[in-house]
Design brief:
The protein has helices spanning 2-30, 66-74, 118-132, 151-160, 175-187, 196-204, 208-220; strands at residues 34-40, 48-52, 81-87, 93-102, 108-117. It is α+β, with helices and mostly antiparallel strands. Residues 16-125 form the YheO-like domain.
Length: 259
C-alpha cells in the first residue's frame, strides 16, 4: 500500500512538473488579458503551485477558489468546467475554464485553470460595436467568485453566499437550518479544507463539538430533531473524498453532543 501511494505521488508530481512550462506558454500566447494557474489539490490551503499572468491576483502558495472546492468535492465525477463567467470580489469580469488533472487510477489530484479578463475583452467588443453602429443590450450579472491567496477568505465567501444568510443572521438558525447548511457546505467541498469545521463553528457561534455533530449527521443523512420531511440524500462519507484526496477536516469528533 505504501509503495502504491509513493508511486502515485511520484506520478502526480511528474504530471504537474510537465505542465509548468505549459502555464507560461499559454499565458504568453493569449497576452495580458490571460492568467493560467496550476493547482495541486493535495494541498487545498496552498494549491497554487504555478501561475502566469495577473487577472485574479493569484500567487504561488495561494488557496483554491470556490470553483476548485466544487471540483474537489465531485472527485472522480469532476468534469471540465469551461467558459464560465464569474466576477472577482473587486468587480473584474472573468471567463474561467477549469480542467481537472487525473492520475493513472482516474483520481483527480489537481487542475489547470485559464482565466480571461472578460471585462477588457468586453470593452474592446463594445468599442468595435459602437464604431460599427451595432447596439448592445445589458448583460446578465454573473456570480462572484473569491480568488484569493488565503483559504479562510474563500471558506468565508462560500458560507456567506449560502441562501440562508440572506434571511437572518447565523445565530438565528434553528437545528434543521444548520443541518441544511452543513449538508450544502459538505457538497461544495468546504470540509476538505483543514480547520474548516472550526471556522464554520466560529461563524455560526456554536461549539466545535456541535459542528462535528452536525457534520456527522450531514454525511450520514440524519434528519435534525425538528426537521420536517424525509432526510436529504447522504453526502459521501469516509476518510477520503472520491478524488482520493485525504479529507483533512475529518478529524475524530470530540466527545459530547451539540451544545
Amino acid at each position: 500500500m505504501a509503495a502504491d501511494e509513493a508511486r502515485l505521488g511520484a506520478e502526480r508530481d511528474a504530471i504537474l512538473a510537465a505542465l509548468r512550462p505549459v502555464v507560461e506558454g499559454l499565458a504568453a500566447t493569449f497576452g495580458p488579458v490571460c492568467e493560467v494557474v496550476l493547482h495541486d489539490y493535495r494541498r487545498p490551503e496552498a494549491s497554487v503551485i504555478a501561475v502566469a499572468g495577473s487577472v485574479t491576483g493569484r500567487s504561488v502558495g495561494g488557496a483554491m477558489s470556490e470553483i476548485g472546492m466544487r471540483m474537489l468535492a465531485r472527485g472522480e465525477e469532476a468534469q471540465n468546467e469551461l467558459n464560465q463567467l464569474t466576477r472577482t470580489r473587486t468587480g473584474t469580469l472573468v471567463k474561467s475554464s477549469t480542467m481537472p488533472l487525473r492520475d493513472s487510477t482516474g483520481a483527480v489530484f489537481g487542475a489547470l485553470c485559464v482565466n480571461i479578463d472578460a471585462g477588457a475583452v468586453g470593452q474592446a467588443h463594445a468599442l468595435l460595436g459602437a464604431l460599427a453602429g451595432l447596439g448592445t443590450g445589458p448583460a446578465a450579472d454573473p456570480p462572484a467568485t473569491t480568488f484569493g491567496n488565503d483559504i479562510g477568505s474563500v471558506v468565508d465567501a462560500v458560507i456567506d453566499a449560502h441562501p440562508l444568510r440572506r434571511h437572518r443572521g447565523w445565530a438565528q438558525l434553528d437545528r434543521a437550518e444548520r443541518l441544511r447548511l452543513f449538508r450544502d457546505l459538505e457538497a461544495s467541498g468546504v470540509f476538505a479544507v483543514r480547520r474548516s469545521v472550526e471556522q464554520v463553528a466560529s461563524r455560526l457561534g456554536i461549539s466545535r463539538a456541535s459542528a462535528y455533530s452536525y457534520l456527522s449527521q450531514a454525511r450520514n443523512g440524519e434528519p435534525a430533531e425538528n426537521e420536517a420531511g424525509p432526510p436529504h440524500p447522504p453526502a459521501a462519507p469516509g476518510a477520503r473524498s472520491r478524488s482520493g484526496t485525504p479529507n483533512t477536516s475529518a478529524d475524530p469528533a470530540p466527545p459530547g453532543g451539540p451544545a
